[in-house]
Amino acid sequence: MTTPAVEGDLWVFGYGSLIWRPGFAFAESLQASLRGYHRSLCVFSHVHRGTPERPGLVLGLDRGGMCRGLAFRVAAGKADETVAYLRAREQATSVYVEKHLPVRLEDGRQVTALVYVADRKHLQYAGKLSPDERLELVRHGRGSSGENPDYVLQTHDYLSRMGVFDPVLAGLAEALLKPRPA
After folding, report:
1. Which CATH code, of 3.40.50.620, 1.10.10.410, 3.10.490.10, 3.60.40.10, is assigned to 10-174?
2. Is 20 exposed, middle or buried (0-12, 13-18, 19+ CB in 10 A)?
3. DSSP for residue 166
4. Rounded to 10 degrees, what is the CA torsion of 41, 29, 86, 10?
5. Could you list the active site residues?
6. In Å, how far are 2, 70, 119, 136, 181 from 108, measured between CA atoms?
7. 92 vs 180: CA distance, rounded Å
8. pLDDT tens sequence across 47-79
9. What global pTM score does this model have?
C-alpha cells in the first residue's frame, strides 16, 4: 500500500539536478528507487542548458528499468507552492509529463511521489544518442541555468556521493575532464 509519511504531505522524486539543487523547502530527503523508468540523457535542452539553435542535453526518466534518486518530503502547507515552482522549472517547454508514481524509500516505506517523465512524443525528446553525439551536445550547451558540462559533472558527483553509478554520466564526466587537444 502506498501512503505518505504525513497526511497531505507531498513527496517529490529527484533523479538529476533536483538532487543537488532542489530549489524548494523540504522536511526530509531520503534515497529512493523508482521502478519502471531509468535515468537517461534523452532530452534536448532549449532553455536551462541550451537554446533551440544550440541545444544542450539533460536528463529525463525514460521507460524501463529502475532509477535511484532522492525523495523529498514537502510539508502539506508548502505543497502547492512547491508544485507551482516545479512546474515553472520542469515544464518550461512541456517536455516532461507530470506523474504521481510509487517510489520505495531507503527505509523500506513506499510513498507516492511527484515525478517528471520524459515525453517521448515531444520534439525535444532525443531518444538514444551515440556517446559522441551526447558529448558534442553537452560540451557546447549553454542556457539560462548555466553550462551543460556543469550540469553533467554536478549530477555525476552527487550521484557518486550517494553510491549510485551511472555509466553514461561517468563516461561523459571523464571525457569532459580530459584535456582537449589544441
Report:
1. 3.10.490.10
2. middle
3. -
4. 130
5. 90
6. 11, 14, 29, 40, 48
7. 33
8. 999 999 999 999 999 999 999 999 999 999 999
9. 0.92
